[in-house]
Amino acid sequence: MDATTLKREAARAALDAVADGMRLGIGSGTTAEQFVDLLGAKVAAGLTVKGVPTSEKTAALCRAHGVPLATLDELPELDLTIDGADEVAPDLTLIKGGGGALLREKIVAFASARMIVIVDGSKLVATLGRFPLPIEVNRFGLAATRLAISNSADRLGLAGPLTLRMTNGQPFVTDGGHLILDASFGRIPQPRALSEALHAIPGVVEHGLFLGLAKSVIVAGADGIRTLSAAH
User: Fold this and answer.
1) Region 174-191 average pLDDT
2) Which residue in the list 9, 87, 105, 206 is annotated as catalytic?
């Protein structure tokens, strides 16, 4: 099966966890788009949910598929969030933010009683860091923030370029109006220490390390569907 088919099968498996009446966080990215398509069909068939989208792109897709939406202010506590990931480590720590929606994705996940991640098998890694870590930063003081990130990474034994994300020749701007630095560290053996170091930098708005948020990960591969669960 190709990657798109695998993503759709993972999304289909996650849909089994969605019950009538749920307050549902809806993720961003190509795998989440497959989920929205399938969810829309369920809603059309009579399923009642209220969705909180993690990006403007997801919101538009939900509207196109007839999925009722609410804001997180209207529904500050959610039953379940379903989202994709760029990398998944064995302890279910994640790297997210390849699509640029990491801040809203993390806020929504944190507001949820449960987070299910849907991926294809290529996203599983032994140690996070092969995928560049997205770091959302304030526009003001970009050079100072970049230097502070580099120095903090160096103290943790991490090295690699910090690349300002661009789109169509211009800096990529998140839905929140921020910029993204993609950190190509190659390997992040201490994600919690890096998370704490990044949060200590005033210019860092958020980062793409999702620690302790995923309760389970549904993985679609050539040999079928399997579910990884977080240790308790």
Assistant:
1) 97
2) 105
